[in-house]
Design a protein that fits this description.
With about 90 residues, the protein is mainly alpha-helical. The protein is built from one helix and no strands. The chain has one helix at about 1-85. It is rod-shaped and about 115 Å long.
Length: about 90
């Protein structure tokens, strides 16, 4: 009888250990998946930052062009006033 109880206890311990091993493997796979997801998100952040930088550069160019055009218009308007007065 004692032998049977000892065997049952060892069987229970073995089942618990197998469950822990399975859980560990699942968590290891989940950890790998999450690391890959993090890497993908980091890549997306980098791409978005590069796109944002390019957009800022384009905005700067556009502002410069608008300022140049506005200055030319101001010069044109100023010259036309002088011509009308003369």
């Amino acid at each position: 009888m004692e032998k049977q109880i000892v065997i049952e206890k060892f069987d229970a311990i073995e089942r618990k250990i197998e469950g822990l091993i399975d859980t560990n493997q699942q968590l290891t796979h989940e950890n790998i998946r999450l690391r890959e997801e993090i890497d993908g998100l980091r890549h997306q952040i980098t791409v978005l930052q590069e796109n944002e930088q390019r957009q800022e550069e384009v905005k700067t160019i556009i502002r410069s062009k608008i300022d140049t055009i506005m200055a030319k218009l101001d010069d044109f308007a100023g010259n036309e006033t002088v011509v009308d007065a003369g």
